[in-house]
Every structure is written in structure tokens, then in C-alpha cells.
Write a structure and sequence with these properties.
Layout (H helix, E strand, L loop, with lengths): L9 H22 L6 H16 L6 H39 L6 H27 L4 H14 L1 H16 L7 H8 L2 H109 L1
Helix pairs in contact: 1-2, 2-3, 2-4, 2-8, 3-4, 4-5, 4-6, 6-8
């Protein structure tokens, strides 16, 4: 029994978590009062409760405002249009439910369906944003993908999140419960559901990354083999062309030598013929002079 009620026992750990959830709920309410900052507050809340689920909560306030600052811009960009769309759908659904507004059955079903889709998106968007670095479009896409592919967990998360606030319509004593634990207890219970989805998603992503790396290494090896074969072919072709060039050079030099020899012989014979003709002409002139004398 002493271990059960000790400082490190399960009893004290349970009340420590209860106090942390209470304090975290107050932080969420205070940081959501301007309305447009509620998205960043919900994102920071899910960041802290997921750490609490893994017993890594550390300092609640420090971790809360760390995530609040890091995700403020992206969470606000997602939250404001999502809040306005969800508010419009919720008001329409309430008016239809109370009979204040009447619409044909098909239009009524469309509004209820859109409200359900928006609800599934809201329960997943801020946990995904708190856990992954992605663009706004990528965060919304991943949130809806997780919600659609895990319908049972999605419905359970919607029920858990809406339960304390739905109680306000029936009993007034839900007001202090919602003020103390209305956001954080449903978020903590939801984290036990989406934590498994995150782990499976990360495992699939890791396997896909490994397959890409394997495919990339195979492509690199194939490209390397192709480049090596190309270089070998170039070397072979280069040696062949060198031999051909040598043969061509030899034949060209032989032909040039022959032509040079022919031209030299022709010039020599021409010069000899000229010299012989000159001597003949001189002899003829001498003979003529002797005859005249």
C-alpha cells in the first residue's frame, strides 16, 4: 500500500495527470478568448497531451507556449475559415432540427453530411498539425485521410470530444466540468486513439522511404554500369580510330613521297633536256661560223 500511495506510485501519478490536465484546460481557455487564437491553442493542447500519453510532458506551460508560438501562423490560417464554415453548418443544422427553417429532405441530408465531414476534419487537423511539419493543404489532406481510413476511431473521437459540451444542453452542472476539463480530458482520451494511427502512418511512410531509397540505389548502380560500359566502348572505339588514323597517315605519307619523287624526277629531266639543247645549239652556231670562214 505504501508503494501505491508513494510519490512515484500510481495514485500520485494519476492525480499529477489530473492536475496537469486541469491547468492545461485553463491555458487553452485563456489563449482561446480572442477566438482567432483558438486554433493555435488547440494545436498546443494536443502537443502537450500526446507528450503526457508517452510520459514526456515535462513543463506543461513551457511546452504549451512552445507549440503555440511555433504553430500560431499555420493554425490560425486553418482555424479561421474552418471555424466560419463549421459555425454556418452548425447553425443551419440547429435551425433545421428545431423546425425554424424547413428544407426538402435531400438538402437537409446534405447539410448534415457536410457537418459530419467538417467535424471529422476538426478532430484530426490540430493533432496532425501539432505532430507533423507540413503545409496547410498537406495537413488538411492528411487529417481527412486519417479520419476516412479509420472511421471507428473517428466516430469515437467525435463522441468523446462532443460529450461534455453536449451535456450543457441537458444539465447545468456540466458548466464547471467543461471549464475544468472540457477540452483537455477529451483531447487526452482522443490521443489514445490517434496515437496508434500516427504510428501506423509513420511506419508506412518509413517503408515507402526505404523503398524509394532502394529504388534510387538501384538506379544509381544501373547508371554507373551504363556509364562504365559507355566509357569502355569509347576507349575501344578510340583505340580503333587511332589505328585507322595511323594507317591513313602512313598511306598519305607514302603517296606524298611518291608524288614528290615524281615531281623531282620530272624537273630534273626537264633541266637536263634544256642543257642538252643549249649545247646542241652552240655546236651548230660554231659549225656555221667555221663554214663561213
Amino acid at each position: 500500500m505504501s508503494d501505491f500511495f508513494g510519490l512515484e506510485g500510481p495514485f500520485m501519478r494519476f492525480f499529477d495527470k489530473v492536475f496537469n490536465l486541469l491547468w492545461l484546460n485553463i491555458l487553452v481557455i485563456v489563449c482561446s478568448l480572442p477566438i482567432f487564437t483558438a486554433g493555435a491553442a488547440f494545436t498546443a493542447m494536443h502537443y502537450v497531451v500526446l507528450r503526457m500519453l508517452h510520459n514526456e510532458e515535462g513543463y506543461i506551460t513551457k511546452n504549451f507556449f512552445k507549440s503555440f508560438r511555433e504553430n500560431f501562423k499555420q493554425a490560425t490560417i486553418i482555424w479561421i475559415p474552418a471555424f466560419l464554415i463549421y459555425l454556418a453548418l452548425a447553425v443551419d443544422a440547429y435551425l433545421l432540427y428545431k423546425g425554424i427553417v424547413t428544407l426538402p429532405g435531400m438538402y437537409r441530408m446534405v447539410i448534415y453530411f457536410l457537418l459530419a465531414v467538417a467535424t471529422v476534419g476538426l478532430v484530426f487537423i490540430f493533432p496532425v498539425l501539432s505532430h507533423y511539419n507540413n503545409t496547410c493543404r498537406g495537413t488538411i489532406r492528411n487529417a481527412y485521410a486519417m479520419g476516412v481510413y479509420n472511421p471507428i476511431k473517428s466516430i469515437s473521437m467525435v463522441i468523446v470530444t462532443a460529450a461534455p459540451w453536449a451535456g450543457l444542453f441537458f444539465k447545468t452542472y456540466f458548466i464547471p466540468i467543461c471549464f475544468l476539463f472540457g477540452f483537455t480530458v477529451p483531447a487526452y482520451l482522443s490521443s489514445t486513439l490517434y496515437d496508434g494511427i500516427f504510428k501506423r502512418f509513420e511506419e508506412e511512410e518509413r517503408k515507402a522511404r526505404e523503398r524509394l531509397e532502394e529504388a534510387g540505389s538501384e538506379a544509381v548502380s544501373e547508371a554507373r554500369e551504363e556509364s562504365e560500359s559507355e566509357t569502355e566502348n569509347m576507349i575501344e572505339n578510340g583505340s580503333e580510330t587511332e589505328a585507322e588514323n595511323k594507317v591513313e597517315n602512313k598511306t598519305e605519307t607514302k603517296a606524298e613521297n611518291k608524288t614528290e619523287n615524281k615531281t623531282e624526277n620530272k624537273t630534273e629531266t626537264k633541266a637536263d633536256n634544256k642543257a642538252v639543247n643549249k649545247t646542241k645549239n652552240k655546236n651548230k652556231k660554231r659549225n656555221r661560223k667555221q663554214k663561213q670562214s
